Amino acid sequence: MKLDLHPTVKLVKKKATTVRPAMDAAKLRALCLEAGADDVGFVALDRDEVRDQRDEILSVLPGAKTLVSFVVRMNRDDIRSPARSMANLEFHHTNDAINDVGRAIVRALLDHGHRAVLPSAGFPMEMDRFPGKTWLVSHKPIAVAAGLGAMGIHRNVIHPQFGNFILLGTVVTDLAWAADEASTPLDYNPCLECKLCVAACPVGAIGSDGHFDFSACYTHNYREFMGGFTDWVENIADAANARDYRARVSDSESASMWQSLSFGANYKAAYCLAVCPAGEDVIGPFLSSRKDFTAQVVRPLQDKVEPIYVTAKSDAEAYVAKRFPHKRIRRVNSGLRVNSIEALIRGMPLRFQRGQSDGLAARYHFSFHGSERVDLTVDIRDHVLTIERGLAGEADVHVTADAEVWLATLRRDKSLFWALLTRRVRVRGKLTLLRRFGACFP
Question: Where in the numbering of this chain does the 4Fe-4S ferredoxin-type domain appear (predicted)?
Fold first, then answer.
């Protein structure tokens, strides 16, 4: 049979003559809201705000032209509860709702003859890339570009009406609209700069000056995700027997990890979201009485007796000991290991502990050879980390190292003493300054 005579081909050609109503922005917006989205906006892929994501988005859907950004509200009193089971149940259910809404949008676009995909709102992710970037789409900057909110100092998107009690989703499609149908960013930031997120964070990850300590947040709040899970597995592997394992990991921690494995990974805090009073639907109690709002929402989280997971000798450990002495410090490995020099360069700003750099003013040159040939200048002064490709200026310390050996010393697979003794690593300058450097990245 000739292809043109096949029944399927004949039917499709006949349907192709049927004029289908156009899927314009107004129609798709109405469909998204009917599907369960609480707000939606559209961002053209050629917008500057998503320039850094364009190549990966096109790899996900070649020919993509538009990003459909949408939000689903969470029930805020559940998120605010000191009982983390209630908060995590709300996170999980809302995440399921995001995926259901996104699938409905994709189906509608497909039914109208357009290609569309739904990158995951959270998990699953591309774990073959771990510990590198495992997500396909960064939802926050897309939501900001779509006018669905602005970033608060706690690094969460704050919707003008719903506050930060939202989860975000993004649909990628080849549908394109006229410029006047696209969304625009808000002309103001809903963040009140009240600093309640600063006061509530149990590890001091949010600085009152806007600084954010990624490592502190990741180590505690995401304890039962990715890196924390790896650390738990290594505790099992290193334990001599059951008694030794119980000395390393408490029964409640084992039960909590089991719960995360069976039900879904649980957040340990997310208190920054819980206490945020921004948003038209949220701000009322805060405006009525800041004292009562603090007593009812902030203090229960601050007063909660709980384990706080920190990296040894980190800024977070010092913060907990000073600010929340009633909370129990648990020293753990963050799991933020590096497997390449390029990953090391990307990760240094995330792991830098500015409190550990008190009084340090030094410039470091690194010359890596072997599997990766990279020259690097790292400057630390006035609590600020600066990284530059190449060897710039005069260095106080110059490290020359085989790339694989240096990475092995960072992972503690090999000792730095051995690397120096065998001249796989050579240091010109004061070793005391190199030790100070290491203390900034515990």
Answer: 182-211
For 76, 161, 253, 279, the CA distances from 189, given in Å and listed in that order, are 20, 12, 39, 10
Least Cα distance to 168 among 118, 223, 104 occurs for: 118
Buried b (16+ CB within 10 A) or exposed e, 92-114: eebbebbbebbebbbebbeebeb
| Torsion angle (degrees, nearest 10) of CA 27, 32, 36, 39 | -100
The 10s digit of each residue's pLDDT in 202-240 is 999 999 999 999 999 999 999 999 889 999 999 999 999
- What are the tens digits of pLDDT across the range 273-318? 999 999 999 999 999 999 999 999 999 999 999 999 999 999 999 9
23: which residues sit within 8 A by CB, 6+ positions away? 108, 109, 112, 114, 175
pTM: predicted TM-score of the whole model, two decimal places = 0.91
Contact 376, 368 (CB under 8 A): yes
> Where do the domains of the chain lie, and which CATH numbers do they carry?
19-181 (no CATH), 196-331 (no CATH), 341-439 (3.30.1050.10)
Q: Tokens 């499709």 correspond to what residue?
A: 12
| Residue 311 to residues 205, 319, 321, 440, Cα–Cα distance (Å) | 13, 12, 13, 12
- Cα angle: 110, vertex 116, 118; to 5 degrees: 120
User: Which alpha helices (DSSP H) does 68-182 contain, by range?
Assistant: 76-80, 84-111, 139-145
pLDDT digits (tens, 9 = 90+) for 27-61: 899 999 999 999 999 999 999 999 999 999 999 99
